Amino acid sequence: MLEFLPLRLRDALRDVNIHHISEVRLRAGRPVVVSDRGRYRFLGARGVTDRQPDALAVSYKDIEDAVYRASEFSVYSVTEQMKQGFLTGACGERIGLAGAFVYEGGRPSAVKEITSLNIRVPHEVKGSASFLFEKLYSDGVKSCLLLSPPGRGKTTILRDLIRMISAKYFINILVNDERNEISAAYKDFSLDIGAFCDVIRYTYKRDSFAFAVRSMRPDLIAADELSGGEELALCADCVRSGVKVIATAHAAGFEALSSLEGFSQAVAGKVFDFYAVLAADAIGKVSRIYDASAACIFSA
């Protein structure tokens, strides 16, 4: 995990409980910042600290080298990922990029002069979806949209929910893993998502959903971070064809989804059987559950 980081940062992280770290942020010429149990702190030579003078800093060259190592010394091989503003490390670390984006024909064609990295550290927390599973999936498989602001544990819960459904119901599950975060599959390494899962990685939902229904015959499709109307329409098409969908989306709460393109149509068409909202002030806590008609059926 995080083997692409500069050696002094890896050494510092050995004094940290990595299970408490969800993000590592590198900014050229600035202190290294980590999200420690949801709170931003500095990374010092001996672990996390609240004192900026004790913080380690990184250079532009450190960031350039980290990207090079994360790409397995071939930035060209991850060009398509980088056009979308990220690349993925060997253990499923999503590495967000900030720098100078180069456009051709109105679309990003490359990223250069990268000055910031936001490294999302994947965590396999078995049991994190237990509450949701018992509430919604004890009597069968349903379609569900999981909502929260960034960094509240959506992907971790989604991964565990997939694993639990696979273990109980023995159905074919197709995982759309656009950034290789859910399964973190890489050579001999992968996170546990169950024995009945097929994974399509680094593929847009519009492509993988179509491939899946035609060729993999899934009973359930799982996807992370729906972005709006087109992707909600894809979910609706799957549900109409008899395939259940479990997905996540960024939203401050259920009411905030009203501004998401296509959401009203999704509710009217009862695409999802349930909407589960995670608390904004805690990681991995379900605060509310709504049914297909948008009625609140659980409130913490």
Explain what the structure shows.
With 300 residues, the chain is of the alpha/beta class. It has two domains: 7-120, Beta-Lactamase (2-Layer Sandwich); 130-299, P-loop containing nucleotide triphosphate hydrolases (Rossmann fold, 3-Layer(aba) Sandwich). 25% of the residues lie in helices and 32% in strands. The chain contains eight helices and 17 strands. An eight-stranded mixed β-sheet has the order 12-11-13-14-10-15-16-17, sandwiched between helices. A hairpin with a 2-residue loop joins strand 3 (33-36) and strand 4 (39-44). Helix 6 (205-216) runs parallel beside helix 7 (229-240). It is globular, with a radius of gyration of 20 Å. 38% of the residues are buried.
Layout of helices and strands:
Elements lengths: L6 H7 L7 E7 L2 E2 L1 E4 L2 E6 L2 E3 L7 E2 L1 H11 L8 H5 L2 E3 L5 E11 L2 E14 L9 H7 L7 E5 L5 H16 L3 E5 L19 E5 L3 H12 L3 E7 L2 H12 L3 E7 L12 H6 L5 E5 L7 E6 L4 E4 L1
Strand order across the largest sheet? 12-11-13-14-10-15-16-17
Structural shape: globular
Mean pLDDT: 89
**Beta strands, count:** 17
| Computed CA radius of gyration, to the nearest angstrom | 20 Å
Task: Looking at this protein, list some descriptive labels.
single chain; alpha/beta; eight-stranded mixed β-sheet; seven-stranded antiparallel β-sheet; Beta-Lactamase; 8 helices; Rossmann fold; 300 residues
